[in-house]
């Protein structure tokens, strides 16, 4: 076992943050610790259990099979502790906090708009936002870790959720203005089969969609970076280190350093709100659902 409960929790936190950022240096900045201290903590973790958690691939850290297993279990432990602390705070303050899952792409442009409008009529409403991929959010709604979650809704017709469609959009391929593909009006998956790609972390619907697209042409994508941080993906694209699949609303027409190119056949996406069927939600969560339904198609 690792030395103490505190050290165990800290190492788990460090490991998950490295996974989420795809980089020791970026994780160190988020955690406000030095990179050597972070590397040492992860190294001690590997030695303690005689496992290897990461493989290095060009600009990216790739989880080993043991690393994937460790990440999934570490997230469960950290999430459980976080929920426990949050519920204790709610009890002490006699309030209800809505735990809501928000994928990084949706969190960067849609949720702030909805949140701001909701607070105009619901002063004092409390939210706890969990930034997860759509697939992870669905699982957390089912196990009641989350009350509600924004998600890409494609192919979820037979799942155990109630749903409210908010936005119809599409996925575009983003490259640097200096990239050889920047002047193209549209693309096919064949056009980018040999291009370096930066992806959202596993657990996001778009990552599964993209990998399935490549499998249809019997090709593995050349993934040079995996991250849950939109800003990290953007920076890699701007530096022309790889292309990224982003929702079209995230391509700023005033940002001349990034170009978003649609696909010939289109990669349409539906974004909406999910909650578990046949479950009792708090009045606060029900009120938020009612608000989202009333605001459908009025966000843009």
Can you describe this structure?
This protein is an alpha/beta fold and about 300 residues long. The chain has three domains: about 5-75, Winged helix-like DNA-binding domain superfamily/Winged helix DNA-binding domain (Arc Repressor Mutant, subunit A), CATH 1.10.10.10; about 75-165 and about 270-295, 3-Layer(aba) Sandwich (D-Maltodextrin-Binding Protein, domain 2); about 170-270, 3-Layer(aba) Sandwich (D-Maltodextrin-Binding Protein, domain 2), CATH 3.40.190. Helices cover about 40% and strands about 25% of the residues. The chain is built from ten helices and eleven strands. It has helices at about 5-20, 25-30, 35-50, 65-95, 105, 110-120, 135-140, 205-215, 230-240, 285-295, and strands at about 55, 60-65, 95-100, 125-130, 150, 160-175, 195-200, 220-225, 245, 260, 270-275. Strands 3, 4, 5, 6, 7, 8, 9, 10 and 11 form a nine-stranded mixed sheet that branches. It has a two-stranded antiparallel sheet with strand order 1-2. Helix 8 (about 205-215) links the parallel strand 7 and strand 8. Helix 1 crosses helix 4. The radius of gyration is 20 Å and the shape is globular. About 30% of the residues are buried. The model is unreliable at about 1-5 (pLDDT under 50).
């Amino acid at each position: 076992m690792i030395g103490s409960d505190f050290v165990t929790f800290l190492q788990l936190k460090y490991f998950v943050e490295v996974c989420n950022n795809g980089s020791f240096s970026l994780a160190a900045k988020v955690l406000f610790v030095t990179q050597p201290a972070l590397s040492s903590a992860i190294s001690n973790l590997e030695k303690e259990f005689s496992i290897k958690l990461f493989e290095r691939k060009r600009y990216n850290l790739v989880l080993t099979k043991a690393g994937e297993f460790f990440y999934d279990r570490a997230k469960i432990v950290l999430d459980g502790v976080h929920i426990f602390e949050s519920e204790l705070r709610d009890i002490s303050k006699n309030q209800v906090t809505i735990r809501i899952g928000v994928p990084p792409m949706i969190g960067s442009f849609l949720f702030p708009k909805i949140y701001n409008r909701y607070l105009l009529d619901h002063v004092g409403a409390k939210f706890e936002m969990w930034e997860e991929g759509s697939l992870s959010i669905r699982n957390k709604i089912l196990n009641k870790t989350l009350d509600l979650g924004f998600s890409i809704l494609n192919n979820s017709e037979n799942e155990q959720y109630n749903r409210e469609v908010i936005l119809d959009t599409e996925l575009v391929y983003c490259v640097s203005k200096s990239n050889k593909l920047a002047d193209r009006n549209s693309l096919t998956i064949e056009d980018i089969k040999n291009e370096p790609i930066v992806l959202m972390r596993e657990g996001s619907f778009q990552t599964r969609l993209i990998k399935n697209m490549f499998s249809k042409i019997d090709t593995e994508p050349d993934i040079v970076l995996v991250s849950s941080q939109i800003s990290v993906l953007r920076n890699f694209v701007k530096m022309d280190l790889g292309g990224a699949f982003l929702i079209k609303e995230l391509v700023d027409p005033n940002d001349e350093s990034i170009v978003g190119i649609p696909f010939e056949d289109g990669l349409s996406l539906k974004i909406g709100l999910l909650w578990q069927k046949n479950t009792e939600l708090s009045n606060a969560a029900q009120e938020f659902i009612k608000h989202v339904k009333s605001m459908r198609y009025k966000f843009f």
